[in-house]
Amino acid sequence: MDMVGFSELSVNPFSVKTPENLTPQEIVDLFVPYPEYKNLQLSGHQFLHGHRGSGKSMMLKMMTPEAQCITRSCSVSNLPFYGAYLSIKTTEINATEYVRIENEPSGYILSEHVLTTKLLGALFLSVKQHCSELWALNEDNVSLFYKGIFSKRLSYVGWEDDIPLGNETLDVVRFIEVIDSLQAETVRYIKRRAFAKDYLPYNGPLLGFQDVLLPVVDGLRRNGLIPNCPVFFLLDDSDNLTLQQTKVLNTWVSYRSTDKVSLKISTQMNYKTFSTTSGIRIEAPHDYSEINFTSVYTGSVKENYPKLVEEIVRKGGCRS
After folding, report:
1. Which residues have CB under 8 Å from 263's CB, separation 6+?
2. Helical H runs in the chain?
3. How far apart are CA 308 and CA 314, in angstroms?
4. pTM
5. Residue 84: strand pairing partners
6. How far are the Cα atoms of 28, 141, 253, 293, 296 from residue 36, in angstroms, in the given order?
7. d(CA 86, CA 236)
8. CB neighbours of 77 closer than 8 A, spacing ≥ 6?
9. Are 261 and 230 in contact, with CB atoms under 8 Å apart?
């Protein structure tokens, strides 16, 4: 057997690589869009329901800035939306320690704080990776954003900035450090609660969707630090949220703040509830739209399924 033949046989066309392990270019090369993918790129809260391996993570990964820039052959500043991806199953917010606060009224407040910090962390990490040119072009606006919006909004909810801002140049790392410290403080508290017999009060800042996350997103946009377009939070594997966290997320969906922020939420058919923290149920199509992957194959696009399979095989063959 010659070396060319050996090389061809050494590539397994049936090997499994999860979207988390694919490069942006591989995601673009392998992605075969469903008809519903076009609607997913529009502003509005949306649920993606489907069993494991049905393509939900691939769709969300395709909506990240790196994949969109490749697909559209454009810069970040020209994107029609900015997607910040967060995999719930890879975070600590579904740890068993959080069950301890499930039956406490204050648990909803802490759950919103946890979700808010996680989304802000995902956003600023994405900004660090993709918006360096925008920050360089709008360098003077960075300190204005930090003083006038970021630190001010955090101070409203109990945060004290222990590093006075001098004449040094701010970069996105400073913002990531602040969010990381908030997350670490919460994790420490949750772990201490697991060992405490009596009630242990939480004395740290408490961030929220409307009082912190939305103003921060709007401030980033108005100061030219992210593209002037809607921000999509791409929440993967949301079944892994606790019941309280799920109700908090549903409450955010009920706000319908789709002109600034949209939530794209994937589930593996085990989403715990569609009730909000106040007990009101969110409904489609008033509060959100949805894609159910169990019906995509056999539902309204049944006649196009052979074409879909053909395209998947073609792209897989090209890759191998």
Report:
1. 45, 46, 232, 233, 235, 249, 252, 253
2. 3-9, 24-30, 37-40, 56-62, 65-72, 105-130, 132-137, 139-145, 151-156, 172-195, 214-222, 243-255, 293-296, 305-319
3. 10
4. 0.87
5. 233
6. 17, 38, 20, 10, 9
7. 6
8. 133, 134, 227, 228
9. yes
Residue 44 dihedral angles phi and psi, to the nearest 5°: 140, 145
Neighbour-count burial for 74-90, b at 16+ CB within 10 Å, e otherwise: eebeebebbbbbbbbee
Q: How many CB atoms lie within 10 A of CB 221?
A: 17
Q: Is residue 4 part of a domain?
A: no
Distance CA 68, CA 60 (A): 11
Per DSSP, what are the bridge partners of residue 265?
47, 235
Position 18 in a domain: no
Q: Quick count: other Cβ atoms within 10 Å of Cβ 242?
A: 20
Mean pLDDT of the chain: 86
Peptide bond between residue 285 and the one before it cis (omega within 30 degrees of 0) = yes
Chain segment 11-53, per-residue pLDDT in tens: 555 555 677 778 889 999 888 887 788 889 999 999 999 888 7
- 73's torsion region: left (phi>0), alpha (psi -120 to 50) or beta? left
Q: Rounded distance, CA 299 to CA 49, Å?
A: 14
pLDDT digits (tens, 9 = 90+) for 139-167: 999 999 999 999 999 999 999 986 555 55
Domain membership flag for residue 303: no
Domain range spanning residue 209? 49-289
Contact (Cβ atoms closer than 8 angstroms) between residue 232 and residue 259: no
In the structure encoding, which two tokens stand for residue 61, read together?
């990964």
Total tally of structural domains belonging to the chain? 1
Q: Is residue 30 part of a domain?
A: no
CA nearest neighbour of 249 among 269, 270, 271, 268: 271
Question: Cα separation of 319 and 8, whole Å?
Answer: 12
| Backbone φ, ψ for residue 34 (5° rounding) | -80, 160
